Amino acid sequence: MVPVPRFATWDAFNADLEAQCRKRQSVVLRGQSETIGERLARDLEAMSDLPAAPFDACDQATGRVSSQALVRYKTNDYSVPVAYGHRDVWIRGYVDEVVIGSGGEGEPQCRHRFETHGERPSSAMP
Questions:
Q1: Range of the domain at 95
Q2: What's the rounded Cα separation, in Å, for the pair 102 and 83?
Q3: pLDDT, mean of residues 96-107
Q4: Are 56 and 92 contacting, i.e. CB atoms less than 8 angstroms apart?
Q5: Is residue 60 pLDDT above 90, yes or no?
Q6: How far are the Cα atoms of 18, 68, 120, 123 from residue 3, in angstroms, in the given order?
Q7: In a domain, 63, yes or no
């Protein structure tokens, strides 16, 4: 079995993945005549430009703040400032945090980051 990698943060995990990918760019795979880097460059030339507006890769939901200043998202309750009690809120669930806000697309009122405590980050929300 392959050992499960462990990282303290998502940034450390992503940095390690990027380093491994860059290291392999000079490798020629069996049955190919070009290196991985050369094939990547050719693929990048054929790709379209990124859209002008960035894509917010998250699960979006709405909720309502309870009288105890809690918002339910999936199976968990998240605390928000008491001043937002009984308000409708928007919720964005990212891989590493839940962001809760109220009103238009303004500043979020609350962020809850997930800590990995040295465990391997999971690609699924808890």
A1: 59-113
A2: 11
A3: 80
A4: yes
A5: yes
A6: 19, 43, 11, 18
A7: yes
Whether residue 79 sits in one domain with residue 39? no
- Answer whether residue 87 is part of any domain: yes
Domain total of the chain: 2
Average confidence score pLDDT of the chain: 85
* Mean pLDDT calculated for residue range 84-110: 84
25 and 66 fall within a common domain? no
- Domain assignment present for 54: no
Q: How far apart are CA 79 and CA 68, in angstroms?
A: 8
Residue given tokens 């009984």 in the structure block: 86
Q: What is the DSSP track for 64-121?
A: E--TTSEEEETTEEEE--GGGTT-EEEEEE-SSEEEEE-SSS---SEEEEPP-TTSPP
User: What 3-state DSSP class applies to 40?
Assistant: helix
What was the pLDDT predicted at 114? 63
